[in-house]
Amino acid sequence: MEVLHNLAFGFSHALTFHNLMYCAIGCVVGTFVGLLPGLGPLATISILLPLTYSIPTGGALIMLAGIYYGAQYGDSVSAITMKIPHASSIVACIDGYAMTLKGKTGLALFTAGISSFIGGTVAIIVLAWFAPMLGEVAFLFGPADYCALMMVGFVCVSFVTTGSLLNGLAMCLIGVLLGQIGTDVNSGQQRFTMDLPFLADGIGIVSIALGCFGIAEITKNLDAKEERSPFNGKIKLMPTWEEFKRIIPSALRGSLVGSFLGILPGGGPTIAQFAAYAIDKKVSKYKHEIGTGCIEGVAGQAAADEAAARTSFIPLMSIGIPENAVMALMMAAFIIKGIQPGPNMIAGHPDLFWGLVASMWIGNVFLVVLNVPLVRYWLSVFKVPYNVLFPCILFFCCIGTYSVNNNVDDIFITAAFGLMGYLMMRLELDPAPLMLGFILGPMLEENFRRALLLSRGSFATFVTRPISGTLLGLVALFIIWQVVAFILQTREKRAQARNGGTSETAEATA
Amino acid sequence: MIDRNLARGLFLMAISLAFGLTALKYPIGDFGRAGPGLFPAIVSAMLFLIGVATVIRSRFVDKVALTLNPKNIGLILGSLLAFAVVTMFVNMIVAIVVMVFISTFAGTNYSWFRNVKISIGLVIMAFVFAKGLGMNLPLY
């Protein structure tokens, strides 16, 4: 009952006129920017973050959350209609685009919209029950346990987002090092500032995000020089009752999978989509059709996507540790507004917490009511040629960085990170783990130093405490497994090459 | 041809050395009472190891060519820097126009007239931000 009471309290905050308006603006603007080629949720949030500076805290957080799932939805629209694979909706390209080829675009979009709604609703129930419970657990965590938890996060994110543990971990560590720039809180020593006064407070998260995701993405699209043909097909949205009945079971399955995977470290929408799609392929009544453009292939993954996007707020708000790069950016936004996410947030700011939870459901309604019927107008975004679009995106990057501190120095930093982001992209290094490392870096150092201070310099504290011992054990197991897998793989490849199977090795590496 | 895997390892090693060698100049302290240089030194050391591992790994996997296109990234960064400098010395409206005219050189075709239209649109947008959302922009 307490949960219902809390949710009612949340709705009373989220349903004020201003908060409803911020939620609607967030959803619409997020969808719009998320549709643009090359801009996924991360870039969208970082470009639009400055818009929320002058808005009161509660409204700003509601608007940012709206931007986030709006962007997520916009992403799936561009995946279904034009097969533009953003990082966040790769799975929607498979069956969704296959349905477009069959001329069922409207049905696919409707399925995605309704399934998202179901996924979001389930996730909010999970969020309302689970977040306060996990918040209680978080009070048991000592500094060493926090360090271990962050290490688990690094390893999981590295593996999940990049597929290569080595590259992902390297990016996490670079992020941690970048987070060191500025004044050391314990001693007041200026670190890595190269005597530049504007680096004394550290690098702004917006500069890094816009440099690595905005500028680098623009350049990537310019280098590719591909002209996309806009979508001009017909859209018939309403499904028949038969089709509608097929959506429900698959969407419910996806919601549960997504809700669960969204909570785990390194989890989030992408992995949830893949898992839900794989499960549908195994257990769905229509599994033989999946892959050829059928409703289940879209419904399950869309539900999982939205569910995971919402439950990934749980670790951020109840433990205070973001589990993926998008949540790291959200955390930065919380801190800019003067809110420290963590176990004390639910007790200290119940209006913000429950208001945000309730607004997520309202945002879901907006997505279904506003964005699904309007989807044909959204698609006209794609008729704007990229030659017009990219100066506009650049303009937003400039204004966005400038308005953080009302200072042009930040634009120079953004430019520097644009160059770095471009180099990293060409070297096949994914900047998403870097963001997580950058946000967690200062926390990691603080907890690391505190843990060692408490144990008088003995590293045994990381192993003997039950929570951190278990977590670090998992990390060690995972790394050993990766190394063994690489060695076995190399050996196999060599053996194949020796047997004269040159064509097979070429395939394996391609 | 530059091997991308090898270049990646060297890139990581270079970053780790840049941070690690600087970190050693700060007071290190000991583990019980860490100085400001200790933590970055440890992290840089780990990054250096990953760099070395990447270089070693590049010997065992097939080479991939590293392609760079300096023209586009140069133009985009140039337009950003121009925006900052012009904002500093003149004002932001001029800066927006300058940025549009420089950056569009990176596009597939260049149109003087289209740039004027984009500039007008963006200047109006900037006014909306400044007057409507209360952002503090030095437009004029």
Describe it for me?
- The complex is a heterodimer of chains A (510) and B (140).
- Chain A has a two-stranded antiparallel ribbon with strand order 1-2.
- Chain A starts with a helix and ends with a helix.
- Residues 501-510 of chain A have low confidence and may be disordered.
- Chain A has 23 helices and two strands.
- In chain A, a hairpin with a 6-residue loop joins strand 1 (182-183) and strand 2 (190-191).
- Chain A has one domain (2-225, 247-464).
- Chain A is mainly alpha-helical.
- Chain A has helices at residues 2-14, 17-35, 41-48, 57-82, 92-101, 105-138, 143-162, 165-180, 205-224, 241-263, 269-283, 295-311, 313-319, 325-336, 343-348, 350-371, 375-378, 386-405, 409-426, 432-454, 460-464, 466-498, 502-509, and strands spanning 182-183, 190-191.
- Chain B is mainly α and 140 residues long.
- Chain B has two domains: 4-58; 70-132, no CATH class.
- Chain B is built from five helices and two strands.
- Chain B has helices at 4-23, 38-58, 70-89, 92-103, 112-132, and strands spanning 29-30, 33-34.
- Chain B has a two-stranded antiparallel ribbon with strand order 1-2.
- In chain B, a hairpin with a 2-residue loop joins strand 1 and strand 2.
- In chain B, helix 1 (4-23) runs antiparallel to helix 2 (38-58), helix 3 runs antiparallel to helix 4 (92-103) and helix 4 packs antiparallel against helix 5.
- The longest helix of chain B has 21 residues, at 38-58.
- Chain B is flat, with a radius of gyration of 23 Å.
- The termini of chain B are far apart.
- In chain B, 33% of the residues are buried.
- Chains A and B meet through helix 8, helix 9, helix 18, helix 19 and helix 20 of A and helix 1, strand 2, helix 2, helix 3 and helix 4 of B.
